[in-house]
Amino acid sequence: MRKQELRDQSDQLSAVMVGVELSSDVDTVVENIGKLPSEVFAETCHEILLHLQGKSSAVDLVENCQRFQRAGINLDWKSVQDIIRLLSFNFRSAAKSKLTADLLISKLGEASCKWSKPALQVVHQLWTENGSLVQTHQEAQAMATIGQLVDIQWKLGMAVSSDTCRSLNSPYISILMKIANTSGEISYKSFEMTVLQFQNFFRQFKEMASVLETV
């Protein structure tokens, strides 16, 4: 009983280590991937990559279950779902970190030693072909979630004690920004700058304004 508890804890830890919720441990999921014929695995990967490029609304779990069955691989729906989740997570992470195909393969090998050579070859080829497209779409999605600056307020003060303005009686600029997120909720961000930091901050804004005038 104790050994089984330790095994269960190890399996749960493996899933947490890759940052994705799985019903089985990572090695088991990867072993199931290894059972798939290369062309079938490539179809599933391609479907996931199309979804991550915004070209499809979802990855069809039922269709993937049926695809595996037609190839003679009988996996329950939870196992198929784990495969889709693990691949989706790794592709998203690779896009976020802007990994090359070689680095992606290296990361997969670090997470599990159960990857088969044919499966890794499929991932390498498809990421080489689609990686930049996934990265572009993921970056666009991230930009869409950036909040909007509603208002900005500032005041000049004299520092008595500050992390950045260490000298007593040194002038500083206090900035308060009012930001609306994509759902319309308002939040406030505040920070302090020395006069020198504020001058550099102002200079960068002038450069931005100059560039915008040429657009």
In brief:
This protein is α+β, with helices and mostly antiparallel strands.
Element order, helices and strands?
A: HHHHHHHEEEH
SSE-based structural type:
alpha+beta
What would you report as the Rg, rounded to the nearest angstrom? 25 Å
Number of helices: 8
* Global mean pLDDT: 83
- The strand order across the widest sheet is 1-2-3
**Using DSSP, what is the number of strands?**
3
- Tell me the β content: 5-15%
Q: So what's the overall shape?
A: elongated
Helix content: 55-70%
Spatial gap, N to C terminus: 69 Å
Low-confidence stretches: 1-18
- What characterizes the major β-sheet? 3 strands, antiparallel
Can you give a write-up of this model?
Helix content is 60%, strand content 15%. It is of the alpha+beta class. Strands 1-2-3 form a 3-stranded antiparallel sheet.
Secondary structure elements and pairings:
Blueprint: H1 2-17, H2 26-35, H3 38-52, H4 61-70, H5 77-97, H6 101-111, H7 117-144, E1 148-159, E2 170-180, E3 186-194, H8 195-213
Helix pairs in contact: 2-5, 3-5, 3-7, 4-5, 5-7, 6-7
Key terms for this structure?
3-stranded antiparallel beta sheet; 215 residues; elongated; disordered N terminus; 60% helix
